[in-house]
Amino acid sequence: MAGSKAGKTSATGKAGKRGASASPERSRQGPALASLDVPRHRVVVLHGPNLNLLGTREPHIYGHATLDDINAELVALGEEAGVEVVPFQSNHEGVLIDLVQQARQTASAIVINAGGYTHTSVALRDALAASELPVVEVHLSNLAKREDFRHRSLLGAVVVGQIAGFGALGYRLGVQAAIELSKQLSMMSQKGSESR
Predict the structure, then answer these.
(1) Residue from 41, 47, 62, 171 carrying the catalytic annotation
(2) Is 139 a catalytic residue?
(3) How does DSSP classify residue 15?
(4) I want to staple 100 with a disulfide (CB 3.0 to 4.6 A). Which of 67, 114, 127, 143 is the partner?
């Protein structure tokens, strides 16, 4: 997934298998997430702009792990927990919004590193709020130690929690939290159905 070129969105399905890569035309309608059946537990992991450059972009800040490395670890973590983890990366705000909207029908939780859109995108914030899914925000670096403009997350008010400053480990922690939240919501939903 990670090596996707700017302007394309790609997905990794089951561990190591290459998923569909959306063409720019397909991206306007959203990538393949919409065609997935809804399992009991699916966590969608969204990587924002420039995260396809992980491993080579400012490794002193973002680390040496590539996005492919991170995604493979997250998919394996999900398999161990009996949860499907589906990662996507896009450099385009509208594609990320489409994916959030599709996740409303196809996922039980979202983990997101919105990159630079964290600080600028009201539209992405609104899409996450409208999803009504538990959302975990992840950042590789500690935003409080970065430039002033990175100190404020527009997403912070609509996510369950934020994990920042732990490098690639932050994604693992975020997915673990999303899995737990997803399972808790599922149990609450089952209890509500049984009491009717």
Answers:
(1) 62
(2) yes
(3) T
(4) 127
